[in-house]
Amino acid sequence: MRFILAKDATDVSQKAYDFIRKSILQNPSLTLGLATGSTPLELYKLMINDYKRGNISFKNIRTINLDEYVGLPEGHPQSYRYFMDYNLFNHIDIDKNNTKVPNGSAIDLNKECEDYSSFISKNVQDIQILGIGSNGHIAFNEPGTSFNSSTHIVDLKESTIKDNARFFDNETEVPKKAITMGIKDIMGAKMIILLATGSSKAEAIYRAIKGPITEDCPASVLQSHPNTVILGDHTASFWIRVNREPD
Ligand code: PGA
Predict the structure, then answer these.
(1) In a domain, 143, yes or no
(2) Do residues 101 and 80 make contact, with C-beta atoms less than 8 angstroms apart?
């Protein structure tokens, strides 16, 4: 695991895009694991701008997203499919048939989970982008999730519902369940880039990098991945910078 201290959110995004850009130029049909949430938004803007300037094509890449809420109607503006279309896919030359997001409205959710993991094992992510929750979650793998998990349905923790309530009119509208790539699916990626910005992530980043590898902090599993880069801005890296355990 490599930690890179970035100045701010813009620098985090630029450094992440530098890795992605270089990899796509080397392999124009690579598979990119993507994340939703507020953290990667600036990265997606960089991808769009670079494409619009004619510097890169995403025509032949494949993307696989980490997760999706269960039970939101198709086209709901808070669904992660909508998020990806709106914030990235609609603005670049990607073939939408090559963009995969779990189907949270599938009638048979267990089959959707099995199919999703099986798809990932056949289309291993060359680079997986990750955010991190304030409780150390990665995707919707909350504390306590088995490191051996494949794609599964989760009951969201209260802290995650609260974190995500800002995107909904009120907290009661946040779905209580989601479908998420498992930790095993994530760890199969050839390279993982975790982006962290803001002070609310500082404790989770410390535990992910310096804490014990434990299912209590899902992101700590990344210590055992052979090619992970953690990009933290100044505030998210506070406890790493001062090199002591959070108070
Ligand atoms: P955020 O979410 O990017 O909106 O902070 C990250 C996460 O919860 O994984």
Answers:
(1) yes
(2) yes
